[in-house]
Design a protein that fits this description.
about 450 residues, alpha/beta, FAD/NAD(P)-binding domain, Enolase-like, domain 1, 3 domains, seven-stranded mixed β-sheet, five-stranded antiparallel β-sheet, about 25% strand
């Protein structure tokens, strides 16, 4: 026996939810298969809890920059209250509200592990039972990623934290080791330092933090970390780990570092190992390669779609949501082309200073053969920054395609610069000529006036 739907979505994170909502809202019958919580990794173990834990430290740091407000900062952050707010923001890891939404849009939920079982078919393992689903139009895979585990001797025995342990913790370790200098690792390194960890050490194998961003970004974050007592070790490789109450990590040069907890944050891999890809001729354990309509390239008939992190194109929540909307439109018979995830992926690292970037870095542009020119200005060099407090610093940088006279990349560092990012995203996606951008007048006094300074530096 099997149930038949127009569309079957496997994976109920933000990407899957967007595909479900858009298909169901336009009259298609939709089944959603999810083994855990509707809302996915971002809602319960990623973006939402981590940013909630980061926020108290950001607010205190912002107040300390402002004379008059600084005098009101007289105590320490109450970690217990921060954890309680995190619990509230994750609905105490319950998805009742999302389940209710599914009913409201007319989608059918199947709790269990979904596996492909041939063309247009999904088998759902539910405790002792099973259910076979078949799709008239499409199957959409939105299973996301799982943490990558580096091959370090002894790591499996030390009970290291992954992102779920870190964002779900109700305790502040006195000494925290963080393996990995990417966004997730350094965001929580600073969050726990500000929540009360006495010692935080970041171990990064590359030459700098945030190795995929502009070099100045990682350098500025490292300087800020060291100023508030976070130790940063770059160009180091962990070769061993052991726990005897405390965790000891051995580095390639023989040095040892010790902490009470070890948070491993060295990347993620596509969650396709147990998805049944072999039943349709694809290789398990690898991202599902898709075309610009989000259809799987190597599957005949155009019925299989892969959206979000599982396809490897742009593994960020907002890009998965974007792809979910496009895939739904394609299923509904519209001509679509995903191109934002090729030219304008916005990304924010919520440290202090923040790093907000979109499009190409200078090195990316050079690798692509862009006839480029770059311009920079200081984030703190406009009156709007002065009004936000003392010591506001950072860098704003544009990467310009000289042949087309358009922006192809932008990076902003400094406090709260995430709100500068969407204007850059619009400029890149819209291929707005610099001569036209010159007439987009920033309000005074706002930090957005850095756009005027950047265009002046370009010569307009």
């Amino acid at each position: 026996m099997s149930d038949t739907f127009d569309v079957i979505v496997v994976g109920g994170g933000p990407a899957g939810e967007n595909a479900v909502g858009r298909c169901a809202g336009r009259g298609l019958s939709v089944a959603l298969v999810e083994k855990e919580l509707i809302g996915g990794e971002c809602s319960y173990w990623g973006c939402i809890p981590s940013k909630t834990l980061i926020r108290p430290g950001d607010v205190v740091a912002a107040a300390e920059r402002v004379p008059g407000a600084a005098e009101a900062v007289t105590g320490h952050i109450a970690a217990v209250s921060a954890f309680a707010q995190r619990d509230y923001m994750t609905s105490n890891w319950k998805d009742d509200g999302q389940v209710k939404w599914l009913g409201e849009v007319g989608a059918t939920l199947f709790r269990g592990v979904g596996r492909l079982a041939g063309a247009r078919a999904v088998e759902v393992a539910q405790d002792d039972a099973g259910q076979r689903l078949e799709a008239r139009r499409a199957v959409v895979v939105a299973t996301g990623t799982v943490p990558a585990v580096p091959p370090i001797e002894g790591l499996a025995d030390v009970m290291a934290w992954d992102n779920r342990d870190a964002t779900g913790s109700h305790d502040v370790p006195r000494r925290l080791l963080v393996l990995g200098g990417g966004a997730a690792g350094i965001e929580l390194a600073q969050a726990f330092r500000r929540l009360g960890s006495e010692e935080v050490t970041v171990l990064e194998g590359g030459p700098r933090l945030l190795g995929r961003e502009e070099p100045f970004a990682g350098g500025q974050v490292q300087a800020a970390f060291e100023a508030e007592g976070i130790r940063v070790l770059t160009d180091v490789r962990a070769t061993g780990a052991r726990r005897n109450r405390a965790v000891t990590v051995t580095l390639g040069d023989g040095r040892q570092v010790e902490g009470d907890e070890l948070f491993v944050s060295v990347g993620r891999r596509a969650a396709t190992a147990d998805l049944g890809l072999e039943t349709i001729g694809l290789e398990p354990g690898r991202p599902i390669e898709v075309d610009d309509s989000l259809r799987a390239r190597a599957v005949d008939g155009g019925w299989l779609y892969a959206i979000g992190d599982v396809n490897g194109r742009a593994p960020l929540t907002h890009m998965g949501k974007y792809q979910g909307r496009l895939a739904a439109d394609a299923i509904l018979g519209r001509e679509v082309r995903a191109f934002a995830d090729e030219i304008a992926v916005p990304r924010v690292t919520f440290t202090d200073p923040q790093v907000a970037a979109v499009g190409l870095t200078e090195s990316d542009a050079r690798a692509r053969g862009v006839a480029l020119r770059t311009v920079t200005t200081e984030t703190g060099g406009v009156p709007g920054a002065y009004t936000r407090g003392n010591g506001i610093s950072g860098t704003c940088k544009l990467v310009v395609d000289e042949e087309r006279s358009v922006v192809v990349g932008a990076t902003f560092t400094g406090p709260d610069v995430q709100e500068l990012l969407h204007s850059a995203t619009v400029a890149i996606v819209g291929a707005v000529p610099l001569e036209t951008l010159w007439h987009a007048v920033p309000s005074f006094p706002t930090v957005s006036e850095v756009w005027l300074r950047l265009l002046e530096a370009y010569g307009l």
